[in-house]
């Protein structure tokens, strides 16, 4: 059986790029796009959370080994805009192409990806490191 560190190495493509937080960002932007038509207080909270998940994971990794902040932010912004547009389209198809119960799928996938991301982040913080 493969260790968690081996899985984490397979998940990270380059230093500073975290796939787990990118999935959380994608599903959060998908849910934001789906709910932005209502323009309620929940949309404002989702927007603030989206901005935080967009920027904050850069500071989780060691900035000296990570990519340039502007290039990193541009890539994640593209993912955010794509997922938001996809969420808008998804919201328009609910009831016409897909049944109404499908509107809960983005939030369910967001919860699952957030749990997995939290597990990886806490494991990275709490794992034992040998003293040098």
Mean pLDDT: 81
The percent range for helix content is: 55-70%
End-to-end distance? 28 Å
Radius of gyration: 17 Å
Q: Give the beta-strand count.
A: 0
Regions with little confidence, pLDDT below 50 for 5+ residues: 6-16
Strand-residue proportion: under 5%
Structural class: mainly alpha
**Major sheet characteristics:** none
Overall spatial form = elongated
Total helical segments: 5
Fold and architecture overview:
Helix content is 66%, strand content 0%. The chain has 132 residues and is mostly helical. The protein has one domain (17-124).
Task: Produce the secondary structure layout.
Elements lengths: L3 H8 L7 H17 L5 H15 L13 H25 L11 H22 L6
Helix pairs in contact: 2-3, 2-4, 2-5
Overview in brief:
With 132 residues, this protein is mostly helical. Helix content is 66%, strand content 0%.
For the structure shown, list the relevant keywords.
single chain, 132 residues, mainly alpha, elongated
